[in-house]
Amino acid sequence: MIKGLFDGKRWSALFAAFPEYYIPGFLMTLRISLTGLAVALVLGVIFGMFSTSKWKLLKIISRIYVEFIQNTPLALQVMCYYSVLPMLFSSSGFRIPKFVLGVIGVGIYHGAYISEVIRTGIEAIPKGQSEAAASQGFSYLETMYHIILPQTVKIIMPPLANQALNLVKNTSILAMVAGMDLMYFTDSWGADRGYFAQAYFTSAVMYFIICFPLARLARYLEIRSMRLPVAKKLDIQADEEAAC
To answer: Where are the transmembrane segments (predicted)?
Structure first.
């Protein structure tokens, strides 16, 4: 195994295939990560607000979404989207692109975790501010938009950075459905030639290029948040789920 890792012939074959396999996969992983993160943020804000709403129905909807998504495997969810969603459009002849399936998969999955981050951030703001806003005639949405959410941004940034990091790593699950991501091309090239050591080592380095800056950013934001004089801000770290 060790000898094969340093085989010059195998590395030459990888370098020759790098523009055809690894570059498209790397770019696709970036596209899915960025678009999926945008979807996850939108869902996170919506369901995070639902979970702190005064209306019980919205809280119930939020809990159903969060509990179901967090307690089922991402691989199973992706396979369901891949198998079920195309059936809904089969009569029209419309085919859902693999890119869209990937974005839906990681977006919905991490949206559940981000909604918990948002919920905890909202709950960290003293309730007196919401009460004061209500006394001034602000609606719930106006209170969230103008007063509460802007204050939660600095509090929730560390766990949000961690969620972005986990989302990038979880895009690798899309290789199961030919998602054309980095892991898919790694599996394809490695299996075709049997050069698994070179294939997966190179893929690991490329994931590291994306994830290491996010990990450093998360650490920086975490240290910075320690200086924020907001009550309960540290509870976010305890409530954050590890999405692996």
So the answer is: 32-52, 167-185, 197-218
Q: How many domains does the chain contain in total?
A: 1
Query: Residues 180, 28: contact at Cβ < 8 Å?
Result: yes
Other CB atoms within 10 A of residue 25 CB = 24
- The whole domain housing 99 covers 17-186+202-241
Burial of residue 39 (number of CB atoms within 10 Å: 0-12, 13-18, 19+): middle
pTM of the model: 0.82
Give the helix/strand (H/E) hosting 147: none
Tokens in use for 33? 């990560």
Q: Give me the CATH number covering residue 31.
A: 1.10.3720.10
Highest mean pLDDT among 85-94, 143-152, 163-172: 163-172
The position carrying tokens 């075709």 is 192
Give the DSSP H or E segment for 12: helix 8-51
The pLDDT tens digits for 9-63 are: 888 888 888 888 889 989 999 999 999 999 999 999 999 989 988 889 999 999 9
User: Scanning the structure block, which residue is given the tokens 């559940």?
Assistant: 112
